[in-house]
Amino acid sequence: MSVSKHPNGPAPETLPALWYHDPEVYARERQAIFRRHWWPLAREDQLASSGAYASGEIAGWPAFVIRGKDGALRGFHNVCRHRAGPLMRDEAGRCAALTCRYHGWRYDLEGRLKSAPGLTLGQDLDPTEFSLHPVRVATWNGLVFACLDDGAPDLTTWLGDIVAVAEGFPAVPDMTFQGEIVKAGSANWKAYGDNSCEGYHVKLVHTGLGKTVPEEQVEIRPYENGAFIGFDVTYALSAADPSRRGRGLWIYKFPGLLLHFSDFAFNMEIVIPTGPRTVFLRRWFWCAEALAAARGTSAQAAIDSAEQVMGEDLEICELVQKNLEAGVYECGRLSPTEEVGTIFFQQLVRQALSDAGSEAGSGTHADHPPAS
Length: 372
Hints:
It is a single chain. It is built from nine helices and 17 strands. By secondary structure, the chain is α+β, with helices and mostly antiparallel strands. It folds into two domains: 17-31 and 161-357, Naphthalene 1,2-dioxygenase Alpha Subunit, Chain A, domain 1, CATH 3.90.380; 38-151, Rieske Iron-sulfur Protein. α4 (189-196) crosses α8.
């Protein structure tokens, strides 16, 4: 495995251990990082008809997207304006109206309040002041994204060079959805991100995968436009004919989106923090089945391999998390040749928190990010 050398000379310091478990740091990250980025909430084919919806959570913010009667996609916080009850309690479905599951306040598919049991609209309250709180929604490559910050860049700008990269591979709508893997782990989201942005650990952590790595050519480099780390992979299409080569590109898009492109399949993993010490992972799979069969593989083989690798990654990250919290380790050094992706990832963390601190007019502390 070859990587692009980090150009900045001496080995840089890692993030401080405290940043991986301190509740105050996590609270700042929610505002400075997770609220300001785009997150996949659904597949576009799930929302084909009026009233079709999908819900999820973004770093503690419940949200959902729904197809309106006018055909438009809209997003809302999954929070009733009465006493904060949920409107959606399942991940996907279809409805004719939005009804709070606590006290029955009802909204139309555009989020406007239509009835409030026990209250007279126009007399007890002005319904125009009690519409659902909106969430930005946009689509790309058959996927539906949501963003909680009205001031964040549009989705295409946020994706940057990923848009052009995707054009060199089969489009998601042209493939068949194969299923998903979900996992919850006891590790900070950055521990998982640090791990996902380098191949340094592969031979020791992924012993099965490590055996195939020498047969692949992998170049890892950061992309400024879109803020992601790219793993450019060239591999043998078949053991019988090693001269036939295929190409893939694996991406870690800051702060927590993994995209895996190949000439016959695509999968996407979402890394969502559920607290300063916990993380939730969801991975979706698509495959052009005829192309996969022609290459002697299958969608199920890819899913089985991914599930094993994700489990191994989570296991090592959970062990690292315990050591980060033990009070012995404070800070380490990163390899300019083997951890170029992790260096870039940690730079993006520092920059996001520094920018938030500057906006708030605050300084920095040796162990704490700027106050937001």
